[in-house]
Amino acid sequence: MQTTLSELKPGQHGIILSFTDLELSLKLMEMGCLPGSEVVFERTAPLGDPIVITVAGYQLSLRLQEAATILIEGIRTEKMTKDYK
Amino acid sequence: MNIAIIGNPNTGKTSLFNALTGLNQRVGNFPGVTVERKTGHCSLPDGRVAEILDLPGCYSLYPKSRDEAIVLEVLSNRSNKSLFPDLVLAVADACNLKRNLLLFTQVADLKIPVILVLNMMDVANKEHIKIDVDALSRRLGVQVVPISARRKEHIQELKQAIVHAPGIALQHDTISVESLAPELVDSLTAKFALASPYSAIQLAHQHENLSYLSPEQSDLVEATEQQYGFHSNELQAKETADRYHFIGNLLKDTLEQAHESREQRQTKKIDFILTHKFWGFISFFFTLFIIFQAIFAWSAYPMDLIENFFSWMDGLGRSFLPPGPLADLLLDGVLAGLGGVLVFIPQIAILIGFIAILEDTGYMARITFLMDWAMRKVGLSGKSVVPMIGGLACAVPSIMAARNIESWKDRIITIMVTPLMSCSARLPVYTLLISLVVPDEKIGGFFNLQGLALMCMYLIGTLGAIVVAWVMKQLIKTKERSYFILELPVYRMPRWKNVGLTMYEKVKAFIFQTGKVIISLSIVLWVLASYGPPGRMEKVEQKYRSDAFRKTLPADEIDIHKSSEMLENSYIGIMGKAIEPSIRPLGFDWKIGIALITSFAAREVFVGSMATIYSVQDEGGDPAPIREKMAAARDPHTGKPIYTAATGFSLMIFYAFAMQCISTIAIVQRETNSWKWPIIQLVYMTGLAYLASLLVYQLFK
Q1: Fewest Cβ atoms nearer than 10 Å: which of A69, B23, B396, B696?
Q2: ipTM score of the complex?
Q3: Which residue is closest to B487 within chain A, CA to CA?
Q4: Which residue of A has its CA nearest to B484?
């Protein structure tokens, strides 16, 4: 199944497939959002936008309109990992 | 020896800079642009002294803001001997090597000697991140030095590495740069005698941003691009992908890292509260509350000290300088003008300190994240929140803080509306006028009417800022797209030394850079208030010297009346009368006109001017005597009180919106590097103030 990052729900994982906007993709790639890398949709801001994702081992915040330019595949919903010691 | 420090934001670049240079640092600007240039000296073990330059933090050599554009400018201009580094220290966060190495590979490919500095090794060790430093060093062909700048660990080893650094670039190629655009690289390398293929690629991408290129040289690059069909965006995308591919391979053999570190888990837990739907806003407003309490409470004592210091200086000056125009100019003009501004330094320093703490801990990024949606609706960005809130204390450091906004349009709008936020200098004006026109009563038993009026003034200012931002959003056209891609760094304790140094440096910059303007304007105002057209001032002098007149008044009031009448006949008094017809519709007379003119340089002068005009000594800032005189003031023609509710409110609205602050004009000029924006700001704010006052007066009259 393929969709955009903006349509994921909190807690869902996915793999970046490609981008629909070349100019934005440059900035996103520099920040570590590369095709083939895993992203986790962490949460949204209180008013629904922007959102926080985990990518390349750190947290990145971006607006929904930017997330909508990132195509995602291989979505899976992982159980929220409980804090392990 | 020139050394440049480069690295991503939040990697402890500044900590390293501070660890190397200590207090031997200077903040200035890069030639021709208003990008902060931090330099310092560092003594090396072999006796040499290195000049260290702290470049703005960036994620890659492709700039996202004006500040970042300076990085390539410095790293590519080999003919500028005073700036071009002999050695680059590329700082990387050992806990997030993958993203941090992107910038390193770009710098390495420019073929400038480079040392890879792995910072935050203490945290990495705690998180069981294993980095094979020797293998990394072998693979890259550079020295790799693990340090902890925060704990000052292994700084000596780094200095030793700097001493051993080769004079020429020995690093291995990272990606095959030439294959990105072979003909273009060959052609540009030959034409410009470039040191590396990657310099050619960067030249092609960014020649428009490089100020050292002549128009002909830039055209030559453009023509070469045309010739070989250069597609900037596509090439950059390919380059970035190639670099990450290289980094991925490199780290496969040299890095062992758990999926998620303890620090990150902790950060997520804190974020669960601080960016929560409900608790997020509560914590945000609580933070604001603390900051404002601190700004007003902690600054009271140092402000008193500064005021006392200036009155002591004044007294000292009076006793040593012979009385006359020189003493008056120095004391009433320069010293008074300087004192009026320097008294705000404690507030400015406290605000800067809090902003530094918010940035250092990582909470600033969360505020931005929390507020972005709402701010975007009115043409601002989440990053505008901090400057605007800061504007409630003082617009000057807040406008400086707007540098963090990458989008040019967002930044300009933020700068333009920040002075509408009611700053602390308006407070004495509001206090005086409210006490004059709003009865000191309670409604509903506990709402103090005067307090309510004061709150309304703050709300009106904020509302004004939002409306103006929205209008400007429609007016300013830009090709540039606004975007919001922001790292949320892990929470860390603030580095108090960095906070202290930031406060010190920014306050110093404020004093020296705005001080010049303030002094010159204070002199002009003083001259205008002290001198009048030939003959007129002498007449006043004569009148007060005549015995017949002196008998009509008690001795202690003579001087006060005299200075009041002198002011009336000075140039500024004449100007006040001249503008009276235009401010009549707002409910102001010529005396208020004088106050408007004198407080052009700084709003808080209003109270002092009123005191002089109404012949009252402003004793210890207690507004009561001035208030009584003002309340008693009557219109000479109609006999009605001048300060009616309509005039009072109209005047307050005028002060809420009008641009009456030389320091702000100076800082906007410096930050935008043009006179265009400060002039637009001055015109629109004055216009807005006039119209709003007109409306208020006509409605309430």
Answers
A1: B23
A2: 0.90
A3: A60
A4: A62
